[in-house]
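agent> Task received from the user: take the single chain below, predict its 3D structure, and emit structure tokens. No templates, no multimer pairing.
agent> Plan: (1) validate residues, (2) run structure prediction, (3) serialize to tokens, (4) report one or two observations.
agent> Step 1 OK, no nonstandard residues flagged.
tool_call: predict_structure(input=
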Amino acid sequence: MPDPFAPLARPIPVTVTSTPVAGTTADGIAVLRLLRPSHDHALGTECAACAAQTDIRALLFDLLQSARQGHRPPFTRVVVDASALPDVAAVTDRLVPGKMPALGLRDHTVARSFVLHGAADHRQLVDQPKQPAGRKLEPATSSAPRR
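)
tool_result: status=success, residues=147
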């Protein structure tokens, strides 16, 4: 069994979209659909069941483990469909290094294995050309300022 916390050679780009993604967009792209919480919570709180449906770090870790164990095809990019959530920034904040604290080794593994590629309309993802190996991927649209 492969080491679940082993680093990857290159981080996998993750794009978060607030528009619904229909099906799989292309080969090599994994699609994660975040679900709307099944009931209301007080501001700043949520139950364990709802947190499990929207915890992007846990979902990305599980996706990576499934591919490492051969339970799903390998992927080179991830598209996160956050259209069911009222606040997409809550998802992207968990992928920005240093923005939200890591709660365990799983979160550190996700931080080393994935990189926020940006936020985009999913139609831009389908039309975006594949980048040759070794080239840095540029975001289709980014909500964060470029440095």
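agent> Step 4: summary for the user.
Residues 121-147 have pLDDT under 50 and may be disordered.
agent> Done.
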